[in-house]
Fold this protein.
Amino acid sequence: MITITPTASQRLQAIMTEKNIDTHVLRVFVSGGGCSGLNYGMTFSELPEATDQIFETAGLKVVIDPTSYRYLVGAEIDYVDSLMGGGFRIENPNAVQTCSCGSSFKTAAGEQGQSCSC
């Protein structure tokens, strides 16, 4: 399971309200590529897929596909707002290397990434 901080939950719920998609679920996923080998992604979906892991945290229904789930177990999603700009950050205990921008990572068994262009 992953966790979502109260700050991230409030921001995600505000986005859902702005877009009038209050009944959607938050899909969190991992895809190949990025500076460190794997990229994080988040989107909103109308319905979960049959094979998704489904759970609720911080007032949100979250879905993760089985492949992504093994990379994200124990991760925490936060929202950081600073003078340099705001954005979602994922703290992942499974990552052994993270890109300086925080959007890609590598696990102990992960493939090699390309040079960082952050």
User: Anything to note?
Assistant: The domain at 3-106 is CATH 2.60.300.12 (Hypothetical Protein Aq_1857; Chain: A;). The chain has one domain: 3-106. The chain has a mean pLDDT of 82.
